[in-house]
Amino acid sequence: MNNIISTTCLVLLVLTVPACATKINDEVATAKYLQESRNTAMEFRKKLMGVQKAQLESVGAENAIPVCKVVAPGLAAEYSKDGQQLKRVSLKARNKVQGTPDAWEKEILEGFDNAQHDGKPADNMEASTVSKDADGRWFRYMKAIPTQAQCLQCHGKPADISAGMKAKLAAEYPQDLATGYSVGEIRGAISIKRKIN
Questions:
Q1: Beta strand residue intervals within the chain, DSSP E
Q2: 137 bridge partner residues
Q3: Mean pLDDT, consecutive 10-residue segments, the chain of 197 residues?
Q4: For 155-188, what is each residue's pLDDT tens digit?
Q5: Domain layout of the chain by residue ranges
Q6: Which of 143, 32, 161 is nearest to 94 (CA)?
Q7: What CATH number labels 31-196?
Q8: Helix axes 72-79, 2-59, angle to 10 degrees
Q9: Based on the number of CB atoms within 10 Å of its own CB, is 47 exposed (0-12), middle (13-18) or buried (19 or more)?
């Protein structure tokens, strides 16, 4: 009888220790990567908005489309290194190839929208988790992107967008969904996915 109890305890211990170790590792990864991800998202957004503002002032809105079409993905690629991936995603993507959210990102974006409808400010919205897929374990982070006044020239309501801009957007993005926004409304999110070793 004592052997059965000892064996049962040993089996339970063997099964429980890895689960506890994974939970501890997830907590350590979250603590380690959360602040780094916040800093990265803030830095990325600040750089992109700086380029955007300069382009809008120097060449005008209609000629500033390359900032979001070319510069933003290039800047995201600069931050996507050393096991980290950064991208911008939206429920109303302008560039479906680069901006369509995966299942987790979609769920978080919908949660951001619901929280905003409940009166929470978009500036403070973020989410993180540790997930596992066929490629391993990942720390995931998302930071909401609230629509700024300068964004309305391309992403605003039809009355906010000039005829020239509408024509350029139709030519560049024939299946564009990324319009109809107001200042402060969640335009999308910066999404960071980081490999956990």
A1: 84-89, 126-133, 136-146, 186-196
A2: 132, 196
A3: 55 49 62 92 94 89 85 92 94 91 97 96 94 92 95 91 92 91 96 92
A4: 999 988 999 999 999 998 988 999 999 999 999 9
A5: 31-196
A6: 161
A7: 3.30.450
A8: 140
A9: middle
Beta bridge partners of 87: 191
Q: Which amino acid appears at position 55 of this protein? A: Q
For the chain, the residue count is 197
Residues 142, 15: Cα–Cα separation, whole Å: 33
pLDDT for 56? 87
Q: Are 108 and 128 in contact (CB under 8 A)?
A: no
Q: Which residues contact 88 (CB under 8 A, 6 or more apart)?
A: 72, 76, 98, 99, 145, 188, 189, 190, 191
Angle at 99 between CA 97 and CA 50, to 5 degrees: 125
